[in-house]
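New to this. Explain the following:
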Amino acid sequence: MTRDVPICPLCGRPIPPEAQQSLHHLTPKLRGGKGGPTVLLHQICHNEIHATLTEAELARDYNTIAALRAHPRIAKFTAWVAKRPPGFHSKTPGPRRRR
């Protein structure tokens, strides 16, 4: 891998060009984050965030990478996915969050 391959701030794995990826708004757009800071994540990492937390929780308590990584379910997920290859993707397991 070359040094210009971005690193996922959630799981710490490289994000190669062929990997599914997306931008995450640290504060949800619908909660005042439109035009705010974004981070590039693996799609699987992004899916886990939104499967775990509501928009209100993201805006109120989990609007930094450090806060996201400290959440128990996300911490368990990142420990698991960190052992997978950089381009790994699968459906997000478990129940969706309450809306």
